[in-house]
Amino acid sequence: MSSKLRNNKGKNSVIWVLMGLMVAGLGGYGVTNFGASVNAIGSVGGREVDLRDYARALNQEISAMSAQIGTPLTFPQAQQLGLTDKVRAQLFATAALEDEADDLGLSVGDAEVRRAVTSIQAFRGIDGSFDRDAYKLTLRQQGLTEAEFETRLRSESARGLLQRAVIGATGAPEGFVKALAAWTNETRDFTLAELIPADLDAAVEAPSEEALKTYYDAHPEAYTRPETRHITYVWLSPEMVQPEIQIDDATLRAAYDQRIDEFVVPEKRLVERLVFSSREEAEAAKARLDAGEASFEELTAERGLTLSDIDLGEMSKEDLGEAGDAIFAMTEPGVAGPLPSDLGPALYAMNGILDAQETTFEEARDTLLPDLTIERARRTILERSEGIADVLAGGSTLEQVAQEMKMDLGQIDFSSETADGIAAYAEFREAAEAATADDFPQLVELDDGGIFAIRLDGIDPPAVRPLEEVREAAVADWTRDETKKRLLDKAAEIQATLDNGATLSSLGLVTTRFAGFARSGHLADLPGEIARRAFQIATGKAAVIDAAGRVFLVQLDAVNAADAADADAYATAVRPRIAQSLAGDMLDLFVTALETEKGITVDQAAINAVHAQMQ
Asked: How far apart (Å, rounded) are the C-alpha atoms in residues 399 and 408?
């Protein structure tokens, strides 16, 4: 059953190349078995939208999106992303243009069709020339005859002629381009002042009891205690087990030997290496360096490199290979070479000497011992965890588990604000938030090797805290808001004075003047609203800005016309983009008019048949 459909689409939906649509999918998206009685998903005027084209285009769009997001996209996901609607809009737009090209009698000759066919990569053989057998085979895999495909190419070429005719004469209006360039590049001079409590005529006094109660009642959300969960837990951490762990000297010595590179660090050099293709070239560069004709950095730049590209970092004598002796013989920074390297002759810049460092076993003991005991404690907890889980599974209470298995027993009133003790662990917070009264306590691992189990004892729903409990915070909040209100009132009074001819700098306020401020400029550590308002007010006028909890006054001192050179450069850069945007709008409007005039029919049953095969 068909129905009329008014097609709405984006500006790019009509730029649809049918030839690319068909050929890009050749070799992997054969579409058949939709039934002999169904061959179109709809039509525009007298032009049908082929069901197979819809299936191919949809497959191609899904594959492209899958490649873009890096994971295969399912058909339901494609529908949710609107890909089916996008593809239909593109195909109906294509059909409208091709139908109009037919009505206008636009066409291309056989030579142009032949050129298009032979230029398609999918139809070329191993030697890169057109292969007729590959042409026939590929089309057959897609369920197309040569005549059908060439007819479509002819229609595509005709449609291209029509599209170019519609957009070909579209250009950027010079008046608009110049106005935009002048507007974008003009600058402003303005004066800015921030009002602070010291600028008020009188300090804000403490609120009366009535005022405080009124404020408290008007802002219950600020003083609402979050849901609180009463939780009992058992906990075993590596630090709890650590006192039980004994580490002998042999184990410590073995750990020291294993980590010897950490404790015994040989003397090193900070080195940069510039490699040359031959020793002669390296010697010539070193001669220029010695004669003061070029610096090491300049020699590096001449080879298209930066110092960071050739930086080797900290190198031992062994790391430097055959060049090690010469570089380690240097007692101060400098350039040595040419010296051998695994990449060829090189100049080496030695930039610093790092003395050898040795930490004795006795000195390393205080580092090794806690590391080893914590690691041993983690293994001990892991070994005990199976037994603890068995005791829990046997129905023991947390209190019994704590006593039997030597775990810490505790209670916590947990809420979204709790982050101390065991609540500092994300695993505990997640378990506490998800717990229900019917849950059976289960053992959960912590990221530091510890374990815990919890029991939900009860839940207190969110509740507004009594005023006496939050009095200090309420007073601070009232004072802050009242101060800001009075600052805004003061700012409004000053604005009226400024709009009547006064200048902000003459009112005794602390001010900052910005000259030649660009429309795209940025004010460091200040709200962006300031710059936006400075470009909205008239010369001599002022604006009050309430932003980021602060109150500002800005007065526009002058509007500076755009620099002619900057405006011309901007116009040159933006002119092609404006023309392209207008061309897209023009083509979009043209296609919409064609679809309205010709009418669109949609066969939903045919569309559903395609979707069913792609599920």
From this structure: 9
- Cβ distance 84 to 78 under 8 Å? yes
Backbone conformation region of residue 193, classed left if phi is above 0, alpha if psi is from -120 to 50, else beta = beta
pLDDT in tens, 410-437: 999 999 999 999 999 999 999 999 999 9
- Do residues 213 and 467 make contact, with C-beta atoms less than 8 angstroms apart? yes
CA distances 249 to 297, 366, 368, 369, 371, Å, are 52, 12, 11, 10, 14
549/527 Cα distance (integer angstroms): 10
Candidates 100, 123, 99, 108; CA nearest to 154 is 108
Please check whether residue 88 is in contact with residue 95, taking contact to mean a CB–CB distance below 8 angstroms. no
Exposed e or buried b for every residue in 549-580, given b needs 16+ CB within 10 A?
Answer: eebbbbbbbeeeebeeebbeebbeeebeebbe
Do 44 and 598 touch, CB atoms closer than 8 A?
yes
Closest CA to 24 of 72, 54, 52, 56: 56
pLDDT of residue 305: 86
Whether the CB-CB separation of 223 and 354 falls below 8 Å is answered with: no
pLDDT at 17: 35
Hey, what are 50's tokens?
A: 């082929």
Q: State yes or no: pLDDT of 233 exceeds 80.
A: yes
Question: How far is 339 from 273, CA to CA, in rounded Å?
Answer: 10
Give the residue-averaged pLDDT of 391-409. Answer: 94
Q: Are 226 and 462 in contact (CB under 8 A)?
A: yes
H-run or E-run covering 57: helix 51-69
- Find out whether the peptide bond into 338 is cis, omega within 30 degrees of 0: yes
**How far apart (Å, rounded) are the C-alpha atoms in residues 334 and 346?**
14
| pLDDT one-digit tens code per residue, 47-95 | 999 998 899 899 999 999 998 888 899 999 999 999 999 999 999 999 9
Round to whole Å and give the CA distance between 197 and 200: 6
* 3-state secondary structure (DSSP) of residue 373: helix
Residue 4 has pLDDT above 80, yes or no: no
Residue 248 phi, psi (nearest 5): -85, 170
Model confidence at 474, pLDDT cuts 50, 70, 90, reads very high
The amino acid that residue 351 corresponds to is N
Q: Tokens 């690691």 correspond to what residue?
A: 375
